[in-house]
Every structure is written in C-alpha cells, then in structure tokens.
Amino acid sequence: MSESHNKHISFNDSHKICFRQHALTENLNWAHYQNSEERLFYINDKQHTLSMYLSGGYETHRTDIQADFGGPGRFSLMPKDSESRWQLGIPQQFMHLYFDDSYLKQLALKVFDIDPRTIEVPELTFFENQGLESLFRYQIANIDWHSQSHLALEQITNTVLVSMLQSSGLTKSLNRVKGGLAPHIARLISDYMHQHYYRQIYLCELAELAQLSEYHFCRMFKESFARTPQEYLTYIRIEQVKHLLKTSAQSLSDIALNCGFANQSHMGRYFRKQFGITPKAFQKSQL
Predict the structure, then answer these.
(1) What pLDDT, in 10s, does the model give residues 22-64?
(2) How far is residue 125's CA from residue 57's CA, in Å, rounded to a whole number?
(3) What phi and psi, each to the nearest 5 degrees, are found at residue 249?
(4) Mean pLDDT of 63-86
C-alpha cells in the first residue's frame, strides 16, 4: 500500500520494501511492493487503487470485514475515500495501479461511449480475473518501466483499465442516474467544440446552444463528460495536436497556433499533462 499516493498507518513497516514506482501522468501511477507481518490501516484518500498479489499473501486478510485470504493472482479494488484494516502474514509481493476517477470515466466515454455518470467503482476484496492477471504479470510486472516506451506503457495501462471496466461490474443503470445533459444536447455541444477547437470558445456560446444558464450548463456538462468545458476543449486540441504530429510536416509552433494554443510552450505544457511526454518526444517516437 503506497504512502506516496494514499495514507497508510502502519504498526510495523520494518519489512516493507518498495521495488519501484512509476508515474505515467498525474492520473496514472504504478508501484511494486513487498511486505510481511504487518497490521495496517489504509485510507484511500487520493485515487482509486487496483492491486494484485504477485506472490505470497496466503495469510493476509482484512480485519474490518469478513473476506477471503489473499494469494497469487488475487485482486483488490479500493475506491477513493474507502478505508480498510489489514493483517499481513508471510512475505508477499503485490502491484498497485493508482488511477483517478475522472480518468476512468473519460476512458469509458472514449472507448465504449459509456455515460460517465454510470461509472461507479465498487470496493472488491480478493477477486480473481485471469485476463487482468495476465496483463499484470506479463505486460507490466515483467518489463522495465523506465526503459519501456512511455506511450506503450500507457497503452498497456489503459488496456488494464478497459479490461476492468468490462469485467468488474462498474456500470450502473441509467435509470438510477440524474443530471447531465440530454444525449442530443451533449452530441450537439461536442460536435460544435470539435468544429471550432482552433479558436476561443466562450462559455456563453455553449450555454446558449444548450439553452441553459452558464452555471447550470457547467454543472451538467461535467456530469456528462467528466470534464469541465475548458478541460474538454483542451482535450480536443491535444488530440488534434497528436494527429498532426503523426501526419503533418508542420513545425511545432505552427501546430500550436493552428490548434488554438497561445504558443508552443503553452501547447507543450498541456500535451505533457495529458500524455506524460513532450510533443517533440512524441513526434520522435513516430519516426
């Protein structure tokens, strides 16, 4: 359980070893630990955590609820704001994937066109999933995180989250969901922003299209897109930058201006935030 991402109150962490940690973006982080013979109180106050035991864990169990014991290939999913108490036994190794709620919802919208309002991360203790285990063991655990291509590692990580979305019952019925933009209004707004991403789009324009007040529109937009209007516009622009870096001979400064950014530095800051690398590094990776 990672101290750098979530609070971990330990009664004896002298056996705890961190083998490696790697931050892909602000929203995605991996960690690989070993621990044993410890009682701890885990407060998941920053991000959701998906954990898998690589080895050991046979004596590990939760002391706050009735649950099975751990073991190689068993997963736990701890949503943000959850708390749990654990008793660890013989030495065990485990891997954690830390991810933001907004990142998961945006991925669900992008890959499956799932309404973000229907995504709800449950608390799951010691479940098994062969597909997820294969991804953890052979695509993540067996590679050097720092020498691996950043984009390749991010793609594998997204595959892990997509597999989790498909198999872990994270979606709830739409008839239990309230708020958000009507589907036809959401499509109208999205199409409009994709058509005009290269210029400043004012909030009043979008609110008028939706026939809502600016305040109400902002609230409903975020529920439907898991982003604010400005964040969504930046996302569209960065996706266009990514496309041009792959297909165009334009200079970075021209790409920045053509995609609605003030300058190359402005573009680079947001590109790195979204993908974890600079536009220039991404461009080189495509050669």
Answers:
(1) 999 888 999 999 999 888 898 888 899 999 999 999 999 999 9
(2) 13
(3) -100, 10
(4) 94
Six-digit token pair at 205? 């324009």
Nearest to 82 by CA among 119, 118, 120: 120
Over residues 265-281, the mean pLDDT reads 92
DSSP state at residue 266: H
Helix (H) or strand (E) holding 39: strand 38-44
One-character DSSP codes across 63-129 = SSS------TTEEEEE-TTEEEEEEE-S-EEEEEEEE-HHHHHHHHHHHH---GGGB-PPPEEEEE-
DSSP-assigned letter for residue 171: B
> Whose structure tokens read 């062969």?
130
Residue 31 structure tokens: 């960690």
Q: Which residue has the higher pLDDT, 211 or 14?
A: 211
Widest distance between CA atoms in the chain: 62
What is the reported pLDDT for 118? 86
Is residue 174 over pLDDT 60?
no
What CA–CA distance (Å, rounded) separates 165 from 63? 28
Phi then psi dihedrals of residue 90, to 5 deg: -60, 160
Strands laid side by side in the 82-88 sheet: 7-10, 38-44, 82-88, 61-62
- 85-101: pLDDT as tens digits: 999 999 999 999 999 99
Cα dihedral 108→158→272→261 (10° resolution): -30
